[in-house]
Structure formats: C-alpha cells, structure tokens
Write a structure and sequence with these properties.
alpha/beta, TIM Barrel, 8-stranded parallel barrel, 12 strands, 17% strand, globular
C-alpha cells in the first residue's frame, strides 16, 4: 500500500438519490461562479478523475469552488482494472490525493484494461470473461479499495464483439467480481443496450441477472449508429440524446434494481448546460414515478 494514501475517506456530501449531470470543463466557470444564494443547477455532478490529477492551477481552483456547492462523484477512465501487471502505483497515489481533496460521495471505474508496460492506451479495451481474468480484476479492485479506503463501483462496458475464450456471460462475471472483491456496481443502461444490440443478446436477461444489492449508481447516455442492416453497429459515443429504447430499458431498470443515483453522461459534442439539465429532468421524472410505484411509459 502507498505510504501516504489516506486510511479512510468519507464523503462530505453524499450523493442524493436523484438525477445528476456530468461535470464538463466548458461548464465549470458557470458552476464555479454561482453566488452562494443562487439556485443549484444540478442535484449532483460527476467528474472524470483523470481530468483533475494536476498538482494545482485554475482548473483545480474551480473544482474547489464547485465542490463547495455540489455533491461530487469521481469516475475514472485510466485505472485499468484488467491489467495483468497490476495497477500503476503512481496513478493510484494521484487518485487518492484527488479523492482526499474533493471527498466524493461515490468513486467508480470501468471493467476494462488500457495500460501495458507503462504505456497508457487512449481507450477502454475489453476483457475475456475467464477465471484468470476474474482473479486479475478482483485482485486489482481489492488493491484499489485498500489504497482508497472505500468501496469502488465497477461499470459494465459497452461491447462490439465477444471473446470465444469467455466461459460465461458478462453479468455472471460481474456478480462473481462483487462476491470476490466486495466492490459495488455502476450499471450503465446505455451500455447494456449497446452490447445487447451489437452481440445479439437479451437486455432483459442481462438486467434480470444483475446483483441488485450491489448497484450503487446508474449511468445514462446517448449512442451513435454506424452502418445499416447486418452491418449496423451501435457505438457508445456519449454524443447525443438518450434514445427511446434506452429510456424504456432505464424504466425497467428502476423497477428491477430500485431507484439509484442516476447520472446523465455527455462527453462529445457537448451542448449548453441547459440541455443536460433537460435530459436529467427526464430521468428524474422516471425516478419519481418509480418511487411512487406508478406504472409508466417513457
């Protein structure tokens, strides 16, 4: 374990069970400069951890201002939980310092790999679902949780192919990972839809086999469609509005998993903040109806 990693981190602002918005750099001046008596623009915000690992500067100063007003969660893209060589100690140390600074209500990472021999690849690469992979990921998750002093949520990926080496479905792998490592799950509904459509899987079966008690957060996002007919593939671009089938799957997710903090992701072609607020408001309507037990169609 890193010598100067915090032994125990707790959130100063727990994430509310509400619809939040991804914190994007172009919106930070708006969110950081609000007067103390201004109305909140979002129930909570989620930042990409790797955007804030610098030692200082105006970006971190703005983040400090945002953290005063909004509950924050931290979502990582570079930890590389599937790396057989283990986790990068320097990267863990930088993340631990960030978490100690902003006291996030939730921390999360992807079920993927992106690092080999110290080289960072600019992608979230898939893993075969085998016993060997499970041991590697579980060991890395436990190591990260030991360093951070808290539970890590692991996000299901979007997939475009399946490995012939896999010995079981993704939901079984995630369930066993929860049992072996004590982690939680970040359930990305758009990723379920994209993976199911691309690989001819049943999204309802996937959802029915998720360990619901482990789910600590839900993600929603838009995807792009490339090609036509048998050559069509859905790409998890986070560059547009959530489509109707994903809204319907989200409504089913709320009925099955229960109402959880839900984040609206938008990473490319990012619109004005007001558009993100509108998408979050759509999610909030479904959350409110689910909490009231109202049958609904999105």
């Amino acid at each position: 374990m890193l010598q100067d990693a915090p032994a125990n981190l707790s959130s100063s602002s727990p994430i509310p069970v509400a619809a939040g918005v991804g914190l994007r750099l172009q919106h930070m001046p708006l969110l950081a400069s609000d007067a103390d008596d201004a109305p909140l623009r979002a129930a909570w915000l989620e930042l990409h951890s790797e955007n804030f690992l610098n030692a200082g500067g105006p970006r971190l100063a703005m983040l400090d201002e945002v953290a005063v007003r909004y509950p924050l969660s931290c979502h990582g893209v570079g930890l590389s939980l599937g790396s057989a060589q283990g986790l990068d100690a320097a990267h863990l140390k930088r993340l631990a310092h960030l978490f100690n600074r902003v006291k996030p209500g939730l921390i999360s990472e992807h079920l993927s790999w992106s690092v080999v021999d110290g080289a960072y690849l600019n992608d979230l690469l898939p893993l075969p679902y085998t016993e060997e992979t499970l041991r590697v990921v579980a060991d890395n998750v436990k190591h990260a949780q030991d360093v951070f002093g808290r539970k890590l949520l692991v996000e299901n990926p979007s997939s475009y192919v399946q490995f012939t080496a896999s010995t079981g479905p993704e939901w079984e792998f995630l369930s066993r990972l929860v049992d072996m490592s004590g982690c939680g799950l970040l359930l990305d509904v758009n990723n379920i839809y994209v993976s199911a459509t691309n690989n001819g899987l049943d999204a309802a079966t996937y959802l029915a086999n998720i360990p619901v008690a482990a789910v600590g957060e839900i993600h929603l996002a838009g995807h792009s469609v490339d090609g036509e007919g048998d050559d069509q593939v859905l790409i998890d671009t986070h560059s547009t509005y959530v489509c109707d089938p994903v809204w319907a799957l989200y409504a089913e997710t709320l009925r099955h998993v229960g109402v959880k903090p839900t984040l609206m992701e938008w990473d490319l072609d990012v619109p004005a903040f007001e558009e993100l607020q509108k998408e979050a408001a759509r999610a909030q309507v479904l959350m409110d109806r689910a909490m009231q037990g109202v049958a609904h169609a999105p």
